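Dear colleague,

Following up on yesterday's call, I've attached the two folding results inline so they're easy to grep. Please treat them as preliminary; we haven't cross-checked anything against experimental data yet. The first protein's sequence and structure tokens come first.
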Amino acid sequence: MEELELIVASVKQEMDAAIKHLEHAFQKIRAGRASTSMVQDVMVEYYGAPTPLSQVANVSVVDAMTLSIQPWDRSAIGPIEKAIINSNLGFAPSNNGDVIILNVPPLTEERRRDLAKQAKAETEQTKVVIRNARQEGNKELKRLDGVAEDLIKGVEKDIQELTDAYVKKADEHLKVKEAEILKV
């Protein structure tokens, strides 16, 4: 009985991780408003080592369309600008000697559709991970010896209900993100 609970807990944990990954991926998809998460994955060549932008500068949102990046070391301004340009985020950094300013360009209708497609693709990937977790859980159940078949069927049903709930949760996340992206 304990083994069955362990399998269900393991499946649930994998599905939780898939939803968390989806939420993180959605943070990177910009919806027209400036957000510090847009540049969180930018790696800066700082004293010869690739370093996350957040470790070499303070990133803040000035207004809905502007990000401000204030390096802790002035000599890092050049490498930060280079890293932003090389990251293909579509930003043209400008600086005043102390602070780098990123103006977030407004999204075109075509770009909004592309971002919505990207969000859909992330959601589909998440659903695949959720279904794979279900499949692994069911395989683990089949490997158990000496467990009543009706117990196994009951746990398979529980795993399927979990799968349905997490797929629905992923779809709800997508619906919210699409509305955010397509809102002009």
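Below is the second protein, in the same order (sequence, then structure):
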Amino acid sequence: MGCLLAPIYLLLIAKVHKRWSLSIMGVIMGIIWFVTGMHWAFALGYMIMAIVADFVAGAGQYKSKKLNSLSYILFSLGGTGSYIVFFVDPNGWAQTMLGNGTEQSYIDTMQATANTGILIAMFAAVIITSAISAFVGCKMLKKQFEKAGITA
């Protein structure tokens, strides 16, 4: 998610300068993820990180490109909730995933290959790709949307 959606996220912030807009988006996304069978921690991660992202963007009245970019990076970390639970409670994670219809072979592969290095690399990859996407998104806001009069 972190790689492609920053322009849309930043456009939302640029158009809607209101508290809770990002939180509402995160809650809706979390509900959709949960209803479609994702692990409960994946959905909860998006909900929590959306609220955190909302406060970060709100600290700059939703007008600071740096805070809005940081907000996007934090929001993107929401999808890591399920993996955090995997590392904290692998057996509980496996039972939940099996209950959601995940195949045993996927569970076995995760348990055989996951280690702390993978978790760190995953967080680093999300942060780096989100930061690049936020940089591109800020450039697009300035070059495309401001020129077209879509944003101020």
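For the second protein, one point worth flagging: The mean pLDDT is 91.

Best wishes,
A.L.
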